[in-house]
Amino acid sequence: MSPVKQFRYPAPPLYGDYARAAAGLALTGIPPLLVPLSPWVAVPMMMAAALFVVFGARTAQRHATVIEMDDNGIKARGPLGGSISWEHLAQVRLNYYSTRRDRGLGWMQLKLRGAGSGETVRLESTLDGFDEIAERVADVACRKGIGMTETTISNFAALGIDADPQAGMDAPGVRTARWSR
User: How far apart are CA 88 and CA 161, in angstroms?
Assistant: First the structure.
């Protein structure tokens, strides 16, 4: 049995997200409180301020979350945490979200669902060790024959992980999902 590995979101990018949330909240939340504005201007600004509050809370949630992975499964410890044993893994989705029109910059979100209700774990690619977790998840999904969308398989391939159970052969430069660490 391998030891439990722990993964965290690195602090420097989270500090940037905190700064963006604070700046956005200051720019959209303070003016409606200080200056009399038309409701047509004040309401959208307050709605934008609410979005920055949610973004700041989401950043704090990621900051407090520790991901643990071992031979039995994966756990997210922290606010809105969850856990899934590899036995119960039933659905895997790996999505890519771009911040640029040319899709040059962005992040991936790995969403895992278990067979039971409430068994959900979500991870973002900014997590230290994300590739290692993705490789393990792809390995388990392939061994269990869990169906994945073409988008998910393609996104695993972008990480250099062959998660296509139909392929049967490794393409050059693509490693087969195997847990070897």
Answer: 22
What residues are paired with 175 via a beta bridge?
Answer: 161
What pLDDT, in 10s, does the model give residues 103-152? 678 889 999 999 877 789 999 999 999 999 999 999 999 988 888 999 99
SS (H, E, C) the chain: CCCCEEEECCHHHHHHHHHHHHHHHHHHHHHHHHCCCCHHHHHHHHHHHHHHHHHHHHHHHHHHCEEEECCCEEEEECCCCEEEEHHHEEEEEEEEEECCCCCCCEEEEEEEEECCCCCEEEEECCCCCHHHHHHHHHHHHHHHCCCCCHHHHHHHHHCCEECCCCCCCCCCCCEECCCCC
- Per-residue pLDDT of 157-178, as tens digits, reads 999 998 876 654 444 444 444 4
* Distances in whole angstroms, Cα of residue 29 to Cα of each of 25, 52, 110: 5, 9, 32
Q: Which amino acid, one-letter code, is at 109?
A: Q
